[in-house]
């Protein structure tokens, strides 16, 4: 009987690897964002992003006219990387703990059982959200690395509990008891007997955990947790624009991030979150098929006793390794390399943000292209230099400006004495779709607007105002600085949506571009 689960899983996994490493080199992949969000058709019709799936864009585009297919293919590699990294960290911690806890006594056994009982009593998604909210890692230089560790830690207790039980069962077998009688050390027992006996279960559970992590990241994305997803995509935008192309400020560009950034588009353009969700589902199915396929493969080998040859070969290798005087040295080197790789990856991730000031200085020192101070030529690219500055200086929606003038509470939350700012999405180092919540209800719309003055372009004027319904009052603002700063993406002003309470006070204000 053919093992269709394994073969299907291997084919899908091969496809994922092809997309991850070869896909970005394909000719139809768009590595740079479009300059315009509008398209002109025959007959004088005008279309504005997002565009639905078509021959030109098989999976459609998002609201910035970015090709969804290109975004998914470009994000595949980081998606696999982050899922595998979380699972590896989980197993690196859980397996040694399982060996220590397999005696069913001592501190390791108590910690393993307590860990499993604590996080096993609540859904994993709730545990993840609680950890990410309670532990303040968002403001750390290597915040993404610490989030990886936190996500990995949640189910360390479960993995440790499973393998501690399996190792205990093996330890009660006669051939293990015989080894103990002749004086084998715990390390020798682990290498010669325990690891060969649980290796098949280790493979099956590892792929199963890859599927569990994939599902968890997809769930977290719906709540905008885990990765601070920020993609550079504004071509010719402000004075401090980053290099064009699809790049993440955190150094990671993944499918959960795409799903998180697109969740607000589900009503207007369902294809934007739909295709990243399908990609994640397909990846989850791949890992589940591999887990089930390997389980069936090992069961079939167990029935035919072929696995005994493999196990005995592993045992002989283990005996040779233990007998070698280099065993301890090799183990130490492997541990140091693993820890070093994790630290270095964090350093690299943090170092990417340190080049922004250099880029900004290059723009400021660049040649005035037309002699009017509005455009500079930087690396053979025309960059708009007009910035919609606030009363305190700095582009009103640039994150580095917000970081300087407000207290950062989390990845997307900032506050002052009077209000809290939440960025619903992050893009090109900017706060997009900001929401202001006042710490105390404000009596009038005029007073609320005055409190927001420091967060608006200095030349912003109220073009019109009206009450949309009993719960919303609208200010339409016009700003020449804002319009010139966003020449290529056709933003000419902004809308302030004041949310009224039943008592007619204002507690929240939403800001959107026009």
TrEMBL record:
Keywords: Membrane, Transmembrane, Transmembrane helix, Transport
InterPro entries found in the cross-reference section: MetI-like (IPR000515), MetI-like_sf (IPR035906)
UniProt xrefs under PROSITE patterns: ABC_TM1
Ranges where the ABC transmembrane type-1 domain occurs: 76-291
SUPFAM superfamilies the record matches: MetI-like
GO process annotations (BP): transmembrane transport
Main location, first listed in the record: membrane
Transmembrane segments annotated in the record for this chain: 6-29, 82-102, 114-132, 270-291, 326-347
Record's subcellular location: Cell membrane; Membrane
GO cellular component terms, A-Z: plasma membrane
UniProt entry tagged with the keyword Transport: yes
Recorded topology in the membrane: Multi-pass membrane protein
Similarity remark: Belongs to the binding-protein-dependent transport system permease family.
Protein name listed in UniProt: ABC transporter permease subunit
Native organism taxonomy: Bacteria, Bacillati, Bacillota, Bacilli, Bacillales
């Amino acid at each position: 009987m053919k093992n269709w689960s394994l073969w299907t899983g291997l084919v899908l996994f091969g496809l994922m690897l092809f997309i991850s490493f070869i896909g970005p080199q394909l000719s139809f992949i768009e590595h740079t964002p479009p300059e315009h969000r509008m398209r002109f058709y025959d007959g004088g019709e005008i279309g504005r992003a997002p565009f639905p799936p078509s021959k030109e864009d098989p999976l459609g585009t998002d609201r910035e006219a970015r090709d969804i297919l290109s975004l998914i293919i470009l994000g595949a590699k980081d998606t696999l990387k982050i899922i595998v990294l979380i699972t590896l960290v989980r197993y690196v911690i859980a397996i040694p703990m399982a060996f220590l806890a397999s005696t069913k006594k001592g501190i390791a056994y108590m910690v393993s059982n307590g860990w499993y009982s604590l996080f096993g009593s609540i859904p994993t998604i709730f545990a993840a959200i609680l950890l990410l909210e309670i532990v303040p890692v968002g403001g750390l230089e290597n915040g993404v690395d610490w989030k990886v560790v936190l996500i990995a830690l949640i189910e360390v207790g479960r993995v440790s509990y499973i393998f501690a039980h399996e190792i205990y069962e093996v330890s009660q077998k006669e051939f293990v008891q015989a080894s103990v009688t002749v004086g084998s050390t715990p390390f020798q027992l682990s290498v010669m007997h325990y690891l060969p006996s649980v290796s098949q279960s280790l493979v099956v559970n590892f792929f199963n955990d890859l599927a569990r992590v994939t599902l968890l990241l997809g769930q977290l994305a719906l709540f905008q947790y885990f990765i601070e997803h920020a993609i550079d995509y504004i071509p010719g935008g402000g004075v401090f624009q980053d290099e064009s192309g699809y790049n993440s400020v955190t150094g990671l560009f993944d499918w959960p991030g795409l799903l998180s950034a697109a969740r607000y588009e589900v009503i207007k353009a369902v294809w934007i979150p739909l295709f990243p969700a399908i990609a994640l589902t397909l990846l989850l199915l791949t890992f589940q098929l591999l887990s089930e396929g390997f389980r069936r493969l090992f069961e079939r080998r167990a029935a035919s006793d072929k696995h005994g040859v493999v196990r005995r070969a592993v045992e002989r290798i283990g005996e040779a390794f233990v007998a070698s005087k280099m065993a301890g040295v090799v183990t130490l080197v492997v541990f140091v390399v693993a820890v070093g790789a994790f630290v270095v990856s964090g350093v690299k991730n943090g170092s990417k943000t340190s080049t922004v000031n250099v880029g900004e200085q290059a723009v400021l020192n660049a040649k005035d292209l037309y002699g009017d101070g509005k455009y500079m030529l930087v690396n053979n690219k025309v960059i708009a230099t007009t910035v919609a500055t606030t009363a305190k200086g700095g582009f009103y929606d640039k994150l580095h400006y917000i970081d300087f003038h407000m207290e950062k509470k989390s990845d997307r939350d900032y506050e002052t004495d009077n209000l809290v700012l939440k960025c619903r999405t992050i893009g090109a180092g900017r706060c997009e779709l900001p929401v202001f919540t006042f710490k105390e209800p404000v009596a009038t719309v005029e007073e609320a607007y005055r409190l927001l003055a420091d967060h608006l372009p200095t030349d912003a004027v109220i073009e019109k105002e009206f009450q949309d319904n009993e719960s919303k009052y609208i200010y339409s603002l016009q700003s020449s600085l804002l319009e010139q700063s966003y020449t290529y993406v056709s933003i000419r002003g902004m809308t302030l949506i004041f949310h009224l309470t039943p008592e007619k006070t204002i507690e929240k204000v939403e800001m959107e571009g026009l």
